[in-house]
Design brief:
There is one protein chain. The protein is an alpha+beta fold. It has twelve helices and 23 strands. It has a 23-stranded mixed sheet that branches. Strand 17 and strand 18 form a beta hairpin. It is elongated. About 0% of the residues have low confidence. It comes from Emticicia aquatilis.
Length: about 550
Amino acid sequence: MKPVNTARKILLRVLYGFIFFSIVVTLIGIWGLKPLLSSRIKEAILTSTNGLYQIDFKGIQYSPMTGNAEIRAVTWMADSMLFDKLRNEEKLPNNVFKCEIEKIKLTGLKPWTIIFSKKLNISTISVENPFIEILHEKHAYNNSNKAKTPYQAISRFVESFSVDKINLENISLTYTNLSKSKRTKSSRIASLDLEVSNLLIDSLSHKDTARFYYSKECIVRLKKLEFPSADSLNTFRLNTLEFSSENRTLTIQKLALEPHYKPFEYGNRSNGNDRVEVLCEAIKVSNIDLEKLLDEKKIYAKELSIDKGRLNVFSDERPFIRPAKINYRLYPHQAFAQLNLKFNIQKISLQQINITFSQYNPETRLTGYLYFNNIKGKLLNVTNDTLPLQQNPICEAYLSTRFMKKNPVNLTFNFNLKDPKGAFRCKGEVSPMPLSDLNQVTNALAKAKVDSGILDSFSFNLQGDKYGLRGPVTFLYHDLKVSLMKEQEKTKVMKIKKLLSFFANKSVLKSSNPIRNKPVKTVAVNFQRNPKKGFFTTFWQALLEGIRGTVM
């Protein structure tokens, strides 16, 4: 998130550069006209940037009578020879730009308004296919240099500057950070559009709280962003992103985490990490606090909604060589708490979310599946910012779903977002169902087929952290009967063993809980987590430990 946030600030600086350029074109147009216009623009840019930047273009057309101007093939670049000189003089800015633009159009640009009122009003500014490259290198001396406000920058030319509509279309942006260590790190964003409505810069506009960066409306649209995960095994993608300052909303279409490899190859390359695939069809953030966004670069919002999505988790249980010391894989709420970008979302609403959990058993060479369909619910107090966490560190989640596509389930989670161990609590209850519905799991993971049996209720109340889960699990059922299976040595096919099944049902497995005239059996689970396994796998394996302890 940090490169995107930096890019947004840079884009606004670039926008102000286009505004300054428009003022230069207008002022020179008053007294230079076409024969001298090109040379005077180049001279003005060179002078105003202390010789750091020079501008070039192939063609320019300007008519003071119609107020229209068009500049083609614009190139803006820095003079590399001045770098050392400006650095020694402590005048080199933190960000150095290179810009290439196919075409800039200005309409309604009337120079006589400057003559009579010292106000510059422009109808539209259109910038087509700009390529912007930023080299960032932080210099300590710039921290004490107070940057000029936009009004201070234009006040020597005009008293006010306004544009009805500004469009930057199909922006390609490259941001390279030269400040951190010896490695240079580049971030790239393409297919970005910026639309600004009713821009006004004068002595009072910065006090107008209804304006966002001096505009009544600012819309940012981003198409097809993608970047790799830290381990290079996955790619984050989004189809479209749009921010509206007037509506105070951020919408995202099709946000996805896509693994690069199929399940077994992923396990080989990750040394047994869970393979996670995510797709959110539609995300909307509403009632964004613009003051927090502008002044503190934090996202505070009333609600975030996710409508339609899926989560697929594959757990590979093949034996992998573990290093002597291994870091625990972060749970989702721990990873959220460590983000550099700070959030405070009052409520997250979920609709039509499907989760599939699959686990491969190398003994049976089969994969078992668990399905949680049509998940809906809410998460409250979702924050990773210091002050809200001090006031309330607990994120609450209330979810309902259908287990194995049929059975209603209610779940409650409490996540301590401030706890360094990732502490959480979870409670749940599953309604009655035929136990044979679990054969998609038991065939692969327990080498058993459920022939009969009814689940009366299944409840749990667990406490967990990065080391595992602990707490009571109660699995109530009756009339359980199973067929045990064993692999044939020659065919390697799993086959039911009737005699083994008979003895198991008679002497090993308990057919009911509670057994007649005996109290209900509740298992106290104390499950130790595999550090490489994620939240969902750990949660399921803790519940499975409780089920096994009940029926055996």
